[in-house]
Specification:
The protein has one domain: 2-Layer Sandwich (Protein Binding, DinI Protein, Chain A). Helices cover about 75% and strands about 5% of the residues. The protein is built from five helices and two strands, in the order H-E-H-H-H-E-H. The longest helix has about 55 residues. It is elongated. The two termini are about 50 Å apart.
Length: about 200
């Protein structure tokens, strides 16, 4: 999402001292009101400091590491069996060698399939988790915009944004972060109070 912010400076000759001052103040007020309708957040800072995102990333990393260890263990066992066959295959009959090679080939295909399936599942879960995060942020921004009267909330990411400069007064990243983390903290507190009650039953 990007937007081009422009500032217009108009030079007008004052016809009277009182009139020019009033006109200038009125123009400044209108300009400030217009700019206040548009604010932005730093998406890099938002994600790196959003507690829900941190927890989701930790859960996903743990799941990914577990899947990788499982695949590595199976691959190591397969490699061990291949090496064992290479050492003892010469003592087998033709039928035994054919049967063993077929089984090893099937296991290799199963490992490759499992690796691909696991990778696809993790990619899907990651995409779903990111959608949840953006949905949560969007819902909060909609609520905040209704409260503050924002007409548009832009996102800024260094090196990947159409916003080359934005006044710091329009940056609501910290405010949004505080609100999002507060909501998530309340959710975790509510969930933790429900768990003991469920266990008692």
């Amino acid at each position: 999402m990007g937007a081009l912010l422009t500032a217009c400076n108009t030079d007008q000759k004052p016809q009277a001292t009182v009139t020019s001052t009033t006109s200038a103040n009125s123009s400044d007020t209108l300009a400030t009101a217009a700019v206040a309708d548009i604010v932005y957040i730093n998406s890099d800072s938002l994600l790196s400091n959003y507690e829900y995102f941190k927890d989701a990333r930790t859960r996903f990393q743990s799941k990914t590491q577990k899947a990788e260890k499982d695949l590595q263990a199976k691959a190591a066992a397969f490699e061990k069996d291949v090496q064992n066959y290479q050492r003892t295959g010469g003592n087998m009959t033709v039928e035994q060698r054919a049967s063993t090679e077929q089984k090893l080939s099937q296991r290799q295909q199963q490992l490759q399939q499992q690796s691909q399936t696991t990778g696809n599942q993790l990619a899907t879960e990651e995409a779903e988790e990111m959608k949840k995060i953006y949905d949560r942020v969007e819902a909060y921004l909609q609520k905040l915009s209704q409260e503050r009267g924002y007409k548009m909330v832009l996102t800024y990411s260094r090196g990947q944004s159409a916003i080359l400069y934005g006044d710091n007064s329009l940056d609501i990243t910290q405010e949004v972060l505080a609100g999002l983390n507060s909501e998530y903290d309340q959710e975790k507190t509510a969930a933790s109070t429900k768990e003991p009650a469920a266990k008692k039953k």
